[in-house]
Specification:
343 residues, alpha/beta, seven-stranded mixed beta sheet, six-stranded parallel beta sheet
Length: 343
């Protein structure tokens, strides 16, 4: 165990189900938990913001969840205390993926933390965003060298890794985004054809530049974007759904009940595939090692957005999580949105 620890801490809890994160969550004080055998207590320094945060507050991912429950998934910090039989030492920087990360301290199973060389926020996006991109594109998208791949929301937290993972696999990559700054960012990470959908018609671009269709779509937007992707699949194309952010803050699911879907799949011998990261826990360590290896070799970058350009300023402190979630839905961020809990 560690030396002196505070008795109380702050954390964010979900008090009711709903899609408005700030309205259904509350910042409270709670006792600092004590790790048991095989567990460690992490003092969080950085936490990651994800569209999935709202899916959980709305009860969409786990219909059995009943408030109150803790919010957040990703944390990076150092071990503040360790139970027996962990093999980890106090002070060791770590990153983890576990429900309840929006807290100053978090007890995590020792086998679930990934040791790091330092408390660098650029490692945090690899856990949820990086693993989502890498595992889904390999296991579900089945990308191959020479495939034409479309990444929607390509300049976001997970999109940036999807672009780079595909490029490292030898694919031709197209990516959608909403600003010229994001176009330049996508070019900088190797995207062959950034598409600013505010200035260009996505469907027209795909019809003109990809007349034979798209082999693999990494889709996280839903709505009209989903329909456009569906209508531009290649023969044997794979439309992979990892989210539907256009519908997360409303009662709308993010998809139309299109009667054309079965016919489209049939005509193209295509497939519609879903991906939920927690179903692939067995692959976490293998892919985390690959991602970190690519990062160290300079073959992959990790871009974080800590709110420096937001209207409310940098996201520092647990009370800024609400602002960071709103910032995500404003589509202003480039890379992964991160809140720093303390300097």
């Amino acid at each position: 165990m560690a030396g002196q620890l505070p008795k109380m801490m702050r954390k964010i809890v979900v008090t009711q189900l709903g899609s408005n994160f700030s309205q259904v969550t509350k910042l409270i004080e709670a006792p600092v938990p004590v790790p048991g055998p095989g567990q460690v207590l992490v003092r969080n320094r950085y936490v990651g913001i994800n569209a999935s945060d709202v899916n959980y507050t709305a009860g969409r991912y786990d219909s059995s969840a009943r408030p109150p429950f803790d919010a957040g998934f990703e944390g990076l910090g150092h071990i503040a205390a360790a139970g027996e039989n962990t093999g980890l030492k106090v002070g060791q920087p770590v990153v983890y993926l576990s429900m309840g990360a929006f807290a100053e301290y978090k007890v995590v199973e020792a086998k679930a933390v990934v040791p790091l060389p330092e408390e660098n926020p650029q490692y945090l996006p690899f856990m949820l965003s990086g693993l989502t991109a890498a595992i889904s594109l390999d296991k579900v998208g089945e990308i191959k060298k020479g495939n034409k791949v479309l990444i929607t929301a390509a300049a976001g937290g997970t999109g940036q890794f999807a672009v780079q993972w595909c490029k490292n696999a030898g694919c031709e990559v197209l990516g959608t985004c909403s600003t010229e700054d994001k176009v330049q960012f996508l070019k900088s990470i190797g995207c062959d054809r950034p598409i600013n959908y505010k200035k260009e018609d996505l469907n027209a671009v795909l019809k003109a530049e990809c007349p034979n269709g798209i082999d693999v779509v990494y889709e996280s937007v839903g709505g009209e974007v989903f329909e456009t992707c569906l209508n531009n699949l290649a023969i044997n194309g794979r439309l992979m759904v990892i989210g539907a952010i256009s519908g997360y803050t409303t009662d709308y699911s993010g998809f139309k009940a299109s009667s054309m879907l079965p016919l489209k799949m049939l005509q193209l011998s295509a497939s519609l595939r879903g991906f939920f990261l927690m179903h692939y826990r067995r692959d976490f360590k293998e892919y985390m090692m690959q991602l970190v290896g690519l990062y160290k070799e300079g073959k992959m970058t990790s871009t974080v957005d800590m709110g420096d350009k937001s209207s409310t300023g940098p996201f520092v402190g647990l009370d800024r999580v609400n602002d960071a979630v709103e910032y995500m839905y404003s589509s202003q961020n480039i890379g992964k949105i991160i809140v720093q809990l303390y300097k």
